[in-house]
């Protein structure tokens, strides 16, 4: 199950200044960014994102569709002793929540950013009032918002269709959710930094995608994993996120260790992405 290259060949955002010649200054010597230009970039990125039905489906709709398909299986609606008495469909709601983040951060976003770099769009923007960071900020904001929207959709459908209880520790659930989105976007930024082309970004993203899905519990919920495997998975960002979301859903505050793992991974991935990212 892999997503199409999200929008690597999408129409580039409209230029807000002259095209940069070969000897133009690099991004660090670009003019100061203006709020109006940044808003123009955000509007352009929103239009381009809305024109990509593949990305919209895989990020926004697919996790909920998967939840509906799994919940339609009778055995998924029966209580499981090895899951502490909850049903499989209850355990899969946080899994689908995390799946939307993995889709957005690892599969959808990197091909877009690397495609902009590959076609010289980021370099040309360095000679305009818009800094290339405006494009990165817009992309991360859009994909993060899409992931959060998909998470809310999964929670709503789970409650309405399968009577899955809503999280009882709302604030703790929100904290874990935001940290999980930050980790997913940081991982996507690192994939973008290490990939020179959009095709490479798609390949690297796919290689990262499946291990992250496993750690989130797509094939086997973290609660049902053997102890040793569960400990390994909980040291990964989405394994820790799955446990944090489960704890908040049951009414407890997410464990400090799980939240700490998310914060640590976000910091490490962000630092690595900033270290290796190139504008051209």
Task: Give an overview in words.
Helices cover 67% and strands 0% of the residues. It has 280 residues and is mostly helical. The protein has one domain (34-276). Helix 9 runs antiparallel to helix 10 (256-276). The protein is elongated.
Concise description?
The chain crosses the membrane at residues 56-76, 91-113, 134-158, 170-193, 200-220, 257-277. 67% of the residues lie in helices and 0% in strands.
List keywords for this structure.
10 helices; membrane; ABC_2_transport; transmembrane helix; ABC2_TM
SSE blueprint:
Elements: H1 35-50, H2 53-71, H3 88-118, H4 121-125, H5 132-162, H6 170-194, H7 198-216, H8 227-233, H9 237-249, H10 256-276
Region (Disordered): 1-36
Keywords: Antibiotic resistance, Cell membrane, Membrane, Transmembrane, Transmembrane helix, Transport
Main location: membrane
Note the main sheet: none
N-to-C series of helices and strands: HHHHHHHHHH
Strand tally, please?
0
Residue stretches low in confidence (pLDDT < 50, at least 5 long) are 1-33
User: Can you tell me the number of structural domains?
Assistant: 1
The geometry reads as elongated
Helix-residue proportion: 55-70%
The protein's oligomeric status is single chain
Percentage of β-strand residues: under 5%
Number of helices: 10
SS-based class: mainly alpha
Provide the residue-averaged pLDDT.
Answer: 85
Radius of gyration from CA coordinates: 20 Å
Q: State the end-to-end distance.
A: 31 Å
């Amino acid at each position: 199950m892999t997503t199409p290259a999200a929008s690597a060949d999408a129409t580039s955002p409209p230029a807000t200044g002259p095209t940069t010649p070969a000897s133009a200054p690099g991004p660090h010597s670009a003019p100061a960014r203006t709020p109006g230009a940044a808003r123009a970039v955000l509007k352009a990125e929103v239009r381009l994102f809305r024109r990509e039905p593949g990305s919209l489906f895989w990020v926004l709709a697919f996790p909920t569709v998967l939840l509906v398909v799994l919940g339609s299986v009778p055995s998924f609606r029966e209580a499981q002793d090895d899951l502490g008495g909850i049903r499989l469909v209850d355990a899969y709601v946080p899994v689908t929540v995390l799946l939307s983040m993995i889709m957005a951060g690892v599969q959808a976003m990197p091909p877009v950013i690397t495609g902009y770099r590959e076609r010289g769009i980021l370099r040309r923007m360095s000679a305009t009032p818009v800094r290339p960071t405006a494009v990165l900020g817009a992309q991360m904001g859009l994909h993060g918002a899409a992931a959060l929207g998909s998470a809310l959709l999964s929670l709503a459908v789970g409650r309405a269709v399968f009577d899955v209880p809503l999280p009882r520790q709302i604030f703790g659930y929100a904290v874990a959710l935001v940290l999980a989105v930050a980790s997913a976007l940081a991982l996507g930024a690192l994939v973008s930094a290490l990939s020179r082309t959009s095709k490479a970004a798609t390949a690297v993203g796919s290689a990262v995608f499946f291990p992250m899905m496993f750690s989130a519990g797509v094939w086997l919920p973290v609660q049902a994993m053997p102890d040793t495997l569960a400990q390994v998975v909980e040291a990964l960002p989405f394994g820790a996120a799955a446990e944090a979301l489960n704890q908040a859903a049951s009414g407890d505050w997410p464990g400090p260790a799980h939240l700490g793992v998310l914060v640590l991974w976000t910091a490490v991935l962000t630092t690595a992405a900033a270290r290796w990212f190139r504008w051209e």
